[in-house]
Queue: 2 jobs
Job 1
Amino acid sequence: MTDDNSKFTPRVFSGIQPSGGLTLGNYLGAIKRFVDMQEAGSHETIYCMVDLHAITVWQDPADLAKNTRELAAGYLASGIDPEKSILINQSQVPEHAQLGWIFNCVARMGWMKRMTQWKDKAGKNSENASLGLFGYPTLMAADILVYHATHVPVGEDQKQHLELTRDIAAKFNHDYGVDFFPITEPVIEGTATRIMSLRDGSKKMSKSDPSDMSRINLTDTADDIAKKFRKAKTDPEPLPETVDGLENRPEARNLVNIYAALSDQSADQVVAEFAGQQFGQFKPALVDLAVAKMGPIGDEMNRLMQDPAEIDRLLARGAERAREITAPILQQTYDIVGMVR
Ligand code: AMP
Ligand code: TRP
């Protein structure tokens, strides 16, 4: 099987779980890049709230609905344009789950057991984890392949799941003797594929961190943003002349990366601009930049969330458009597998 995807429409798919709260990590590592790909115009772009993935761990029903609309608002406020991209909620496009079942019959137990996210999330208590949590990556493969998506922008943490997606596509194509599913390319690039906690440069910034000081939330006020960056852990050294000087300085490196991603520069450019300055000088510049970029997004999110019916209308329309792509691909899959129509 080759990686020749040239027969497929260039198409981007990515998703985020509506499991509560969006962080600067989600924004820089995912949503901002989704917007950039939408604007580049070289691919069709499809972006998703993966509510079926969210319930692999317990979600209070009222919270799930609220978080789904909030994530939709986050996408829209950040610049996802529902005319240019298809914006959907996963459970509204049933072909995802339907293809997911087929892939449960393609993926092997051994492949699934090697997934580090499963091992991390299930931990010592794996007997008590949901079967859905174990099967999470096959549904993710279905999310992508039910569109024949060729490219998937994600953060570093999703790399292994995308390798599994490629393995599932290749095994399906091989077992059924077809060249039906593309071998999707992950797009993990830029300075923001791993934004770290503001309190501990060895941990990724996460909505599940118990300390709110460890992260910037998309809905944080300007005061919150200023306070969190002011208190962010750093070291006493000034900023170096080149990025090499940031080695073994994870907290410093992280703040430089955040500045770089927010200002669409490379880390090298940022370091060149601030070389020799102390964090006492760099941090206020970072705060100004972050407030200027994030403030309007938070405000727009809050505005959009005042009108949930409008969000629901947009999602219904997104699902309709999505199904024009997914229904024929699922039907062809069923035909290949030998399911009688
Ligand atoms: P999650 O919130 O874990 O569902 O992640 C949604 C998307 O945001 C995925 O593409 C992740 O890779 C990305 N992401 C989450 N946290 C970070 C982070 N700290 N740095 C960069 N990307 C992240
Ligand atoms: N697993 C991804 C995460 O936790 C979310 C996700 C589900 C996804 N399906 C996807 C990402 C398909 C990209 C493509 O971040």
Note: The mean pLDDT is 96.
Job 2
Amino acid sequence: MKFDTPATTNPIDRLTIVGKPTDRIDGPLKTTGRAPYAYERHDVAPDAVYGYVVGATIAKGRIRAIDTHAARAAPGVLAVVTADNAGRLGKGKHNTARLLGGPQIEHYHQAIALVVAETFEQARAAAALVRVDYERAHGRYDLARGRDAAVEPKSDPDTGAGDFDAAYAAAAVRLDATYTTPDQSHAMMEPHASIAAWNGDRLTLWTSNQMIHWSKRDMAMTLGIAEDKVRLDSPYIGGGFGGKLFLRADALLAALGARAVRRPVKVALQRPLIFNNTTHRPATIQRLRIGCRQDGTIEAIAHESWSGDLPGGSPEVATQQSRWLYAGAHRKAALRLATLDLPEGNAMRAPGEAPGMLALEVAMDEMAEKLGIDPVQFRVLNDTQVDPEQPERPFSQRRLVECLRTGAERFGWQRRAARPAQVREGRWWIGLGMAAAYRNNLVMTSGARVRLDRRGIVTVETDMTDIGTGSYTIIAQTAAEMMGVPLDRVVVRLGDSNFPVSAGSGGQWGANSATAGVYAACTKLREAVARRLDLDPTAATFEDGIVRAGDRRIALTEAAQDAELAAEDHIEFGDLAERYRQATFGAHFVEVGVDAWTAEIRVRRMLAVCAAGRILNPKSARSQVIGAMTMGVGAALMEELAIDRRLGFFVNHDLAGYEVPVHADIPHQEVVFLDETDPISSPMKAKGVGELGICGVGAALANAIHNAVGVRVRDYPITLDKLIAQMPRIGK
Ligand code: MOS
């Protein structure tokens, strides 16, 4: 099905199941521990042996010699796989060549060996016996120092409109501020894990991966085998946040290990290895310049961002939202990419906007303060309904102003003291802060197969993944709505590369695109049912297990009495995404307390108002947003990979040293969804929320801290040491 004209009325609009707050259909399996994650699939390979990954202990250079004799001779060891004996490896589309290093070392903890043994403990003990002689080379580990040599990336050239420099110079009120955000790690609960088994020349991988078809292709390209010889199966995933978008070392090394020992091999990346071995969100240095008229109208806005990556890498697109969030005739956005020899930078939840909003939305707060205009009002004043770089291109739907106003009212924003450091409650300075939320809405081709059996069970199969987001449930809701059956008549099977290729879980496109693919397949199945029942397919309606056309009513189960009916289709998106700018919008409001004596920061209340098209399942969507808000608190206050700038690695590479919020850090959170549909986005009229929720929340927190104590920290995370010297003086 091609989607290239705005959606009109369709069966989803009935909203008898879609749009209702619905418990996860996979919930009981998960809460009772019966949903098997990759490393726990004892059933598929009961004779599996264990792989333990050895990571490089230099960041750049080469291996002079690697001695595996002692490891090979250790009890239980079956093989030691290294670049010397792994055979020739090709290159997938996503940097898979780096997944097994040697002799060249490109980053710290790059995998250089896999020790395979009968038990995990034997593999781990033997891994400690691998001796490596390195020749260390000079590396670049400091973004601030690499900044001058940074270049304009080919992938993301400078953009703009009008004449920024002249308009900025002439502006009545100007702001020029620089913000920095640190390297961050996905830190998902489930480590990257895979079980690999060969059957002749066929490879099966039970793994944990967001994008099944990307990784199937990359595995085939890396091993130099045909794509149809590779199968991936990833039905349950314990979080990804972008860290499992691509094939990682666990999968490749499990495949190589299994080939070497001719038995299934299971590999989980050890937690202390994950932070340097896999990808991370790159640090940024961001300069914002805003020039306004005295009345608060933005005349000129420029956002420049510097980030680094390994040679051949890509920038963190932190300027993205600044191109589209606010009006202003004169503007520019520029990215500069430095070459660094730290581990690979790549996508982490809302790549681009998440760090970009941390800068833009504090700059907006600073500008509002300079102008003496309320921060909500300042944003309302500068709303735009068209792409400011290309005014002929409207937004498909944009209700930012309504999000801001709804949030201000529900949060009690009018109680905020405009001047900072005015409100004390005992030892706590109290502050309120807000920020807009913005995240692009991407759409992706997505396919599904749907079957109807004689009992009336509808089975959906697609390689779509559920990374903890609720894909199973919204797909079941979609199929139930389309086929007119209750939710418990639908079976959803996900994550298997034998199923039709889907959009996968990434960039918050999964919910809208994958359900649209199911919509397309169900549309075909409805036609097949109608034909089988001799009904007019264009007139048939499906409700309560009954197919109706004209004055005829036939039970749906009749259609499959003699033989199961099946249909497969995919949704393909035309040029609506070019004709309209598509995005999701919101507003974040935060109340903090800052301890007057210690500068300890406590979050007291949070509210997010989101406008993200039709909300397919308000329960799982809310859960996505509160999770993202929590992650935003981490970004503002805690998360930071500390770099050893001499040796070139992330020092705090485990969950003890890399801090994320815990329950005790997070107060009551409220989420409001505006009631809307976006007919430009897909037949589902939905968008994504999983990334929108993190965009802006950290800035709202930073702005609340400023409102509480009058201190602007422009260097994230905002830890108390950065506040304490500037705290307001207090009497006894
Ligand atoms: Mo997302 S960072 O594309 O999983």
Note: DSSP finds 18 helices and 32 strands in the chain.
